[in-house]
């Protein structure tokens, strides 16, 4: 029952973040943080559908952030202004998400493999720029696949 509930919850979040992002961004900061933390938890699931749904949701949110906050002159839409407020209220939310996930993945590995995996993680952003260009996204995907393959090879 719990697995079906989790699957439904993350499917709902994916649809909402992909089609109704402004609804999520218009929530108060505590609710927004709760949603982001639940996506982070979903990324650690053993269910590949949940992981995929969370990754899709985060990709959509990060794309919106990049377009409207990073590369835009200044946020003008209410949704962009709300996202900027959420991030200013909790500035470490997204950087900590990657750092925490990386640390948990490293800690879950045997001690003799942690240094090798850490070196693989260091290569993840090689030749990846701050751009949403499809070639850049492909490069990140290639680096991620290389990380997985290099770690499994040892």
Explained architecture:
- There is one protein chain.
- The protein has 154 residues and is mostly helical.
- The protein has 2 domains: 1-91, no CATH class; 109-154.
- Helix content is 78%, strand content 0%.
- It has 8 helices and no strands.
- The protein has helices at 2-19, 21-25, 29-43, 48-70, 78-89, 93-107, 111-122, 134-153.
- Helix 3 (29-43) packs across helix 4.
- The longest helix is centred in the middle third of the chain and has 23 residues, at 48-70.
- The mean pLDDT is 86.
Give the topology, please.
Layout (H helix, E strand, L loop, with lengths): L1 H18 L1 H5 L3 H15 L4 H23 L7 H12 L3 H15 L3 H12 L11 H20 L1
Helix pairs in contact: 1-4, 3-4, 7-8
Q: What does this entry show, briefly?
A:
The chain is mostly helical and 154 residues long. The protein has helices at residues 2-19, 21-25, 29-43, 48-70, 78-89, 93-107, 111-122, 134-153. The protein folds into 2 domains: 1-91, no CATH class; 109-154.
- Return the string of H and E elements: HHHHHHHH
User: End-to-end distance, in Å?
Assistant: 38 Å
Q: What structural class do you assign from the helix and strand content? A: mainly alpha
In total, how many domains does the architecture comprise? Answer: 2
- If you compute it from the alpha carbons, what radius of gyration comes out, rounded to the nearest whole angstrom? 17 Å
Globally, the shape reads globular
- The whole-number mean of residue pLDDT values reads 86
**Strand count, sense and closure of the main sheet?**
none
Low-confidence stretches: none
- Count of β-strands: 0
> What is the helix tally?
8
Helix content: over 70%
